[in-house]
Amino acid sequence: MRKIILSLAVSLDGYIAKPNGDVEWLKKVPNPDNLDYGFSEFYKTIDTTIMGNNTYKEILGFNIPFPFQDKENFILSRVNNPDTAFVHFTSDIFNLVRHLKSKNGKNIWLIGGGQINTEFLNKGLIDELLIRIVPIVIGEGLPLFANKPSEVIFEQIKTETFSTGIVQLTYRPRKE
After folding, report:
1. Which CATH number fits domain 38-110: 1.10.10.10, 3.40.430.10, 3.90.600.10, 3.30.70.270?
2. Which residues form the Bacterial bifunctional deaminase-reductase C-terminal domain (predicted)?
């Protein structure tokens, strides 16, 4: 069965972006060997992305072509936006997840942001967390989970460490 995997990087103090959405801090950790931290392998395991409208707008602000053109992409938004060549807009999380999980395919990448992450967490829709902890404190920003996340216990599946100091943690929700 397809899994919804929340995969992203967080600062040591738990932020996924600065208050304005900026993620340039991710480039501040030296990476002389140009490690991709397993991203290319992860990317091969997914065929669908889900992200919030703010995350989508931030990606569009990078002034590059939309980076996930080879995937089916869904943007969760409270505003009715017309679909584009590469993305579908929706506000209905449950029907979206039910539809995606009923189809054959690869895993689904939940890209974020913090509000969407919390909605998925609180509704029990995250099957796996793949979190890269970046050794930098940014002081303030957008948290991994925003707006009152529920208490959920996760079990560790895998831990990887890299020469850059980045630690990658893989968890799944513990089934009680």
Report:
1. 3.40.430.10
2. 90-167
Write the CB contacts of 55 (distance below 8 Å, at least 6 apart in sequence). Answer: 111, 112, 113, 116
Tell me the per-residue pLDDT of 48-59, one tens digit each, with 9 for 90 and over: 999 999 999 989
Check if the beta carbon of residue 37 is closer than 8 Å to that of residue 166: yes
Say if residue 165 is exposed, middle or buried (CB neighbours under 10 Å; 0-12, 13-18, 19+). Answer: middle
- Domain edges within the chain: 38-110, 127-176
Q: Are strands 72-76 and 46-52 parallel, antiparallel or unpaired?
A: parallel
DSSP designation for 85: S
